Amino acid sequence: MIDTGTKPKRKVYSSRVKFQAVLEVIKGKSVGEIARAYGFHPTMFSKWRRKFEEQGYQVFDEGKKDESKNKIDELTRLIGKKEVEIELLKKFVGSGD
Length: 97
Description:
elongated, mainly alpha
């Protein structure tokens, strides 16, 4: 086997998958059974469950933060674009004197 020197990428699970896994264990399925079904290591599940227990409903606000951040970034870019347009218009109007 050839070692390329790069580490394998970790799989990232969505909030929905994490929630579904925790919910199934709460309903009575074993952690091992759920880990095999979803393809993650059982130790990952303990982190997800602890986060769920500590943060409760706030765990599900994760996507909303991303949406808000994206909106802020979009609006910041728009403001920058408008500032450039304003400066160009000022120069255009000022050069007509």
